[in-house]
Specification:
mainly alpha, Serine Threonine Protein Phosphatase 5, Tetratricopeptide repeat, 4 domains, 21 helices, 69% helix, 0% strand, globular
Length: 401
């Protein structure tokens, strides 16, 4: 390797060591996580790119440092630096990637997908760009495209880890537990201390109600990363599955102490508080999530339930309606709005349509289906309009007797 190429690689590697500081906190498909000054997380893969322009790298590093500070304002400035870097060096795919991460954090999934696609076009061998693109497509609802991307990538790049773990996540969520376990184990063969792969193994066992094995795996992962909020959240879910709400509450609390921005633990902690009838405490947890992400629909539905429990039916209706305005077929919002109308707003006839819409879109194993079906048997269907004829609107023939 020439001295110029070595110097260029050092510049590119220096930029990359900052790359994943923008990583999300527990997306459906996890993005990479590295610390400052460590080994570069991104591998350039099969495509050899020209030497990185030093001025572009400088702009890139300015943006990456801004990302470490957090906050919407600094993220906008970071994005500006990444754009400036790309105007200087169009091959700096890492800048596209980080712009995509910023969009992803803001919930701008289509924009994020476009940036991850741009990064992948420049460097098709990037495990991280491929994984992030698959995540964005998955969240946009194109789940088959996401799994196809990952499956094709791991067939071609047999030693990748991140894409295998991402594929394991999708397989687990589809209920293909054996295949999910196989992918996660393949990732562990290549990287024995990969915490995300261990986490996926634990989640696959938990989904099959093999709680002893799942907890064992989660504790093994915690031994490698004791400050991992997601793992404490996983242990809390295991405790909930056992019916131990106290232990679950403790684990969810540990998760939020480690990372106050970790929304799943706030939501799970709120669900425990709802079960205990602590509506004020649940409201606090849901509002903590909405301060971080006002478009978190699950938190908004939960907030509506807490408000309903406090006797604030109209405020609850407002929260459910906000969810339905954003996602017309959100099952939990449909069900809770229907219950609210039937039991709290004296609108039982109007609730029937909502219960039916819920049953049309809810998964077959949704625990509320039986309740909705019972309501439909109890609430009569609306009578059809009367047929009007002569004689001041009386039915023809005098009507039935």
């Amino acid at each position: 390797m020439s001295q110029r190429r070595r110097a260029s690689w050092r510049a590119r590697a220096s930029a990359l060591s900052w790359l994943a500081l923008a990583a999300l906190g527990a997306p459906v498909v996890a993005l990479p996580t590295v610390g400052c000054g460590g080994t570069p997380a991104i591998q350039t893969g099969p495509r050899v790119l020209p030497p990185a322009n030093p001025e572009a790298v400088r702009k890139y590093l300015e943006g990456a440092r801004l990302l470490t500070q957090g906050g919407a304002g600094t993220e906008r400035r970071a994005m500006q630096r990444f754009e400036e870097a790309l105007r200087i060096d169009a091959n700096l795919w890492e800048a596209h990637y980080n712009i995509g991460v910023i969009h992803r954090r803001a919930g701008e999934l289509r924009e994020a997908a476009q940036r991850f696609e741009a990064a992948r076009r420049i460097q098709p061998g990037s495990d991280e760009a491929l994984t992030a693109l698959a995540e964005a497509r998955y969240l946009l609802g194109d789940r088959e495209a996401a799994s196809d991307l990952l499956e094709a990538f791991v067939r071609e790049h047999t030693n990748v880890v991140g894409a295998r773990v991402a594929l394991a996540t999708i397989l687990r969520e589809r209920g293909e537990y054996d295949d999910a376990l196989a992918q996660a184990r393949e990732a562990l063969i290549r990287e024995p201390q990969n915490v995300r792969a261990l986490s996926e193994i634990g989640r696959a066992y938990r989904a099959q109600n093999q709680l002893d094995v799942a907890e064992l795996v989660f504790h093994k992962a915690l031994a490698l990363d004791e400050n991992n909020a997601a793992l404490h959240n996983d242990l809390g879910l295991c405790a909930l599955a056992r019916g131990d709400t106290q232990a679950a509450f403790v684990e969810f609390g540990r998760a939020t102490q480690i990372d106050e921005r970790f929304a799943p633990a706030h939501i799970n902690q709120a669900s425990v508080l709802l079960r205990a009838g602590d509506y004020d405490g649940a409201e606090t947890e849901y509002r903590a999530v909405l301060r971080l992400d006002e478009d978190n629909l699950d938190a908004r539905v939960g907030l509506g339930v807490a408000l309903r429990g406090k006797g604030q039916a109209e405020q609850a209706r407002t929260e459910y309606q906000r969810v339905l305005d954003s996602s017309a077929n959100h099952p939990a919002a449909l069900f809770n709005m229907a219950v609210l109308r039937a039991e709290f707003l004296n609108q039982r006839p109007q609730s029937r349509e909502l219960f039916q819409r819920y049953l049309d879109v809810a998964p077959s194993n949704d625990p509320h289906r039986a309740v909705a079906e019972r309501y439909l048997t109890e609430i009569p269907a609306a009578a059809g309009p009367a047929t009007r004829g002569g004689g001041g609107g009386r039915r023809r023939g005098g009507g039935r007797r």
